[in-house]
Specification:
Blueprint (H helix, E strand, L loop, with lengths): L4 E4 L10 H14 L5 H17 L9 H16 L5 H13 L7 H7 L4 E5 L3 H11 L6 E3 H4 L6 H11 L6 E5 L2 H10 L3 E5 L14 E3 L6 H4 L7
Parallel strand pairs: 1-2, 1-4, 2-3, 4-5, 5-6
Helix pairs in contact: 1-2, 1-4, 2-3, 3-4
GO molecular function: hydrolase activity
Organism: Parenemella sanctibonifatiensis
Protein name: HAD family hydrolase
Length: about 230
């Protein structure tokens, strides 16, 4: 068997992303400021969130909830929408704690032959509640709050390796984000499997050992059959 352990992203990989909650928030802003398109609002919010995420590490670390509210506040102020960002965020925060499982996720974990450590850009309390609410058995996990850093920075991956007590070449990382999961794992020379639900093209230079839309498709790779046949 080539891999002795698995680093596993959570949102977008084991459970569905919070897209519906985000779209609901954007729609409420759009109704309040109809001259603003939903697409432009979502793009601006995503850009502000990514900017804050990139600078949040070490002594400057802030939780995902804090960054979500601040980035939303910036967008609301920019478009002149007098809405409460905390109230707007309530449904999104609720989803973080009760996400929907992705198809095949529970079956994959039940059949996975190697130890798994979740590595997730999320707050500790939200991840623990989500794991409990989904009924998944995931004894090892590291959050951005634990590492005081966010993927694609190395700290979260390194903490996951320590939890598994394995070296980078012994581990496969699985995630859905090109920017956070693939780029972060590539930087540490950790093999990465990309969960590509929508058949997006991989960017030039990305090192990906396997693409899948269902985690169960990775089981032959973990069982030692690199061909997947």
């Amino acid at each position: 068997m080539k891999y002795r352990g698995l680093l596993l992203d959570f949102y977008g990989t084991l459970v569905e992303e919070d897209g519906p909650a985000i779209r609901s928030i954007v729609s409420r802003i759009e109704r309040h400021r109809p001259e603003c398109s939903g697409a432009s609002l979502a793009q601006a919010w995503g850009q502000e969130f990514a900017r804050l995420l990139a600078t949040s590490h070490g002594g400057a670390f802030r939780t995902q909830r804090e960054l979500e509210i601040e980035s939303l506040t910036i967008v609301l102020t920019r478009v002149g929408a007098s809405l409460d960002p905390v109230e707007l965020s309530a449904d999104q925060f609720a989803y973080w704690q009760s996400p929907a499982l992705r198809p095949g996720a529970a079956e994959f974990l039940a059949s996975c032959p190697v130890p798994v450590c979740v590595v997730s850009n999320i707050d500790r309390a939200d991840l623990e509640t989500a794991i409990r609410n989904t009924g998944l058995r995931l004894p090892l996990s590291v959050t951005s709050e634990d590492a005081r850093s966010y993927k694609p920075r190395p700290e979260l991956f390194e903490a996951g390796l320590r939890a598994l007590e394995l070296d980078p070449h012994e581990v496969l990382h699985v995630g859905d984000s090109l920017g956070s999961d693939v780029a972060g794992a590539n930087a540490l020379e950790i093999d990465v499997a990309w969960v590509n639900e929508h058949g997006r093209p991989a960017p030039d230079g990305a090192k990906i050992v396997r693409e899948c839309s269902d985690l169960r498709d990775l089981l032959p790779l973990l069982d030692g059959d690199a061909s997947g046949s």
